[in-house]
């Protein structure tokens, strides 16, 4: 190196880090990464508890209804007024609202602007399992930008159903009192509200159980899970950009699912989360803000209370939320109204299914001493008499003849003395076969019985044996020339098993003394929509066509053995020739 180059290298030497500087930098970077990971683990939403909270209301009603009317209680809290609240604003007033908590359920009152002595007169209903129960009332001051300030709180214990008038309770703050009127009443288990909530509980449990099959699908959490902590089975059906109206327009996004209408906004670091259950929505109307801003007003039923943030009060006791700044307000209104309509249709279908199950259980328990009470609302839904299968789902799978009369078909194949069903199921390698006796049913013409068994399943999506319940119904004409044999089959241990039933009808008509015509139609009846609906329908029809051929072949060989008991049975099919229907 030349003498001139040595000073230049020494001058640039400070740009090269030393070994000690490199070690310190790596250690600091590692510590920073670990700190960020720890904070994320502590602050990220916990989905499982939130999912349980989302089902708590309907689960409470469902459990209480099952336990009996004495255990189903509704706590009605009327938030009447407050006085002498703390002045949180610089002008000596407050913008108070109340947060009422009963167990895991939380409800928001409306916000009264510029008052230390607010008048609310709002009602909140909570469903509880039993008494005593504690209700916490917290009063906050609403702030447009900053976090709400606590003005005081009080916890009230409801010990019994004894009625009492309004009571003033002292807040735990420096000053202030709140007037509450609380009463607990018994909810009739057959009331419309109890039936609706029980139906919603059954619908949600069906979805939850279907998710817990032998196949576990790992799905990335969506906005409803990460933001609102809703159950994993809720997915976003529609999403819209809009704003929540208060004294300030909080711009954010609206998310619509099968169960909720949600809104999220994060303006000036103030997070707003609104969760409106579709069961609480009473009305959806169109309106205007500032003449040119199209808006949508969502009214909640009386007693529902606000969800997520303070609501806007109405003179008729309802509460409302106003959303504005939609790109296409009319399209959004139609989508929201359709979501509410679909929800109520699903609940009504669940109620009717509950009614049919109760009637079938009632029919199946005729020989038992235990009585099953069917709610009057359920009887009104089903009517007497009623069809056993859904006519609209049936498609023809077989038309032909059979070598016997309709009367012989009944006596030899499906009567109580016949062993055909048990032998056929055994040949299919089914097990735990339990076939009930025919008995009269008031709700259906003819007779009914129930078959329970475990059937082999060869599909990789099913367990080796699937539990099956099959309700059977038969009507034989007075002259014994026309026979109708119908079945409704429910498979319990397969994916989406609770979504559908297999309906089948056999129509047998005597042609002459040695033959009859047999027409068989079948199809899959879906109690609710699922993503595999079309595939299940087509697959069910194909499997039924195959099974009908096997059943008729086995029936013909069985008839020969019954008619000629001394003849060697060389025509009966082997067990290996009979395959499962799953």
Automatic annotation (TrEMBL):
<dbReference type="Pfam" id="PF00168">
    <property type="entry name" value="C2"/>
</dbReference>
<dbReference type="InterPro" id="IPR044655">
    <property type="entry name" value="BAGP1-like"/>
</dbReference>
<dbReference type="Pfam" id="PF02893">
    <property type="entry name" value="GRAM"/>
</dbReference>
<keyword id="KW-0472">Membrane</keyword>
<feature type="domain" description="C2">
    <location>
        <begin position="51"/>
        <end position="171"/>
    </location>
</feature>
<dbReference type="InterPro" id="IPR031968">
    <property type="entry name" value="VASt"/>
</dbReference>
<dbReference type="InterPro" id="IPR011993">
    <property type="entry name" value="PH-like_dom_sf"/>
</dbReference>
<protein>
    <recommendedName>
        <fullName>C2 domain-containing protein</fullName>
    </recommendedName>
</protein>
<dbReference type="GO" id="GO:0016020">
    <property type="term" value="C:membrane"/>
</dbReference>
<dbReference type="Pfam" id="PF16016">
    <property type="entry name" value="VASt"/>
</dbReference>
<keyword id="KW-0812">Transmembrane</keyword>
<keyword id="KW-1133">Transmembrane helix</keyword>
<dbReference type="InterPro" id="IPR000008">
    <property type="entry name" value="C2_dom"/>
</dbReference>
<dbReference type="InterPro" id="IPR004182">
    <property type="entry name" value="GRAM"/>
</dbReference>
<feature type="transmembrane region" description="Helical">
    <location>
        <begin position="22"/>
        <end position="43"/>
    </location>
</feature>
<feature type="domain" description="VASt">
    <location>
        <begin position="390"/>
        <end position="563"/>
    </location>
</feature>
<dbReference type="InterPro" id="IPR035892">
    <property type="entry name" value="C2_domain_sf"/>
</dbReference>
């Amino acid at each position: 190196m030349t003498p001139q180059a040595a000073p230049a290298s020494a001058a640039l030497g400070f740009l090269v880090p030393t070994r000690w500087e490199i070690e310190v930098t790596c250690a600091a970077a590692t510590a920073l990464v670990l700190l960020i990971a720890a904070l994320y683990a502590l602050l990220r939403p916990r989905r499982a508890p939130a999912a349980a909270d989302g089902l708590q209301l309907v689960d409470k009603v469902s459990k209480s209804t099952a336990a009996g009317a004495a255990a189903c209680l509704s706590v009605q809290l009327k938030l009447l007024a407050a006085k002498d609240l703390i002045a949180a604003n610089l002008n000596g007033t407050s913008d108070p609202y109340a947060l009422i908590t009963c167990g895991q359920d939380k409800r928001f009152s409306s916000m009264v602007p510029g008052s230390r002595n607010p008048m609310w007169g709002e009602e909140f209903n909570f469903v509880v399992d039993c008494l005593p129960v504690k209700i916490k009332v917290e009063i906050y001051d609403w702030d447009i930008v900053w976090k709400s300030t606590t003005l005081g709180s009080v916890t009230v214990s409801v010990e019994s159903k004894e009625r009492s008038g309004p009571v003033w309770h002292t807040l735990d703050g420096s000053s202030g009192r709140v007037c509450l009127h609380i009463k607990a009443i018994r909810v009739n288990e057959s009331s419309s509200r109890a039936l609706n909530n029980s139906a919603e509980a059954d619908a949600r449990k069906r979805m939850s159980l279907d998710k817990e099959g032998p196949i576990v699908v790992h799905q990335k959490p969506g906005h409803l899970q990460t933001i609102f902590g809703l159950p994993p089975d809720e997915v976003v059906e529609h999403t819209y950009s809009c704003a929540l109206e208060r004294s300030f327009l909080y711009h954010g996004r609206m998310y619509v699912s099968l169960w909720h209408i949600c809104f999220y906004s994060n303006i000036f670091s103030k997070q707003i989360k609104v969760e409106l259950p579709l069961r609480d929505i009473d009305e959806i109307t169109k309106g205007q803000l500032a003449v040119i801003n199209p808006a949508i007003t969502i009214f909640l039923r009386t007693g529902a209370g606000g969800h997520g943030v303070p609501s806007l009060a109405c003179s008729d006791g309802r509460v409302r939320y106003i959303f504005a700044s939609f790109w296409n307000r009319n399209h959004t209104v139609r989508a929201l109204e359709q979501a509410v309509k679909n929800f109520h249709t699903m609940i009504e279908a669940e109620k009717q299914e509950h009614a049919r199950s109760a009637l079938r259980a009632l029919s199946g328990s005729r020989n038992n001493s235990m009585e099953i009470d069917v709610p009057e609302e359920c009887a009104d839904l089903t009517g007497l008499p009623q069809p056993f299968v859904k006519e609209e789902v049936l498609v023809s799978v077989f038309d032909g003849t059979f070598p016997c009369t309709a009367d012989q078909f009944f006596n030899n194949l499906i009567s109580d003395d016949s062993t055909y069903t048990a032998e056929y199921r055994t040949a299919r390698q089914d097990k735990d076969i339990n076939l009930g006796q025919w008995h009269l049913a008031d709700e259906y013409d003819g007779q009914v019985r129930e078959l329970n068994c475990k059937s082999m399943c060869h599909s990789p999506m099913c367990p080796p044996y699937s539990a099956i319940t099959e309700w059977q119904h038969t009507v034989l004409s007075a002259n014994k020339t026309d026979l109708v044999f119908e079945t409704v089959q429910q498979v319990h241990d397969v994916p989406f098993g609770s979504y559908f039933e297999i309906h089948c009808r056999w129509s047998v008509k005597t042609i002459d003394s040695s033959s009859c015509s047999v027409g068989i139609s079948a199809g899959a009846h879906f109690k609710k929509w699922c993503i595999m609906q079309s595939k299940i329908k087509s697959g069910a029809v194909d499997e039924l066509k195959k099974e009908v051929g096997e059943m008729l072949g086995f029936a013909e060989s069985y008839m020969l053995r019954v008619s000629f008991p001394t003849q060697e049975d060389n025509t009966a099919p082997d067990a290996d020739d009979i395959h499962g229907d799953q």
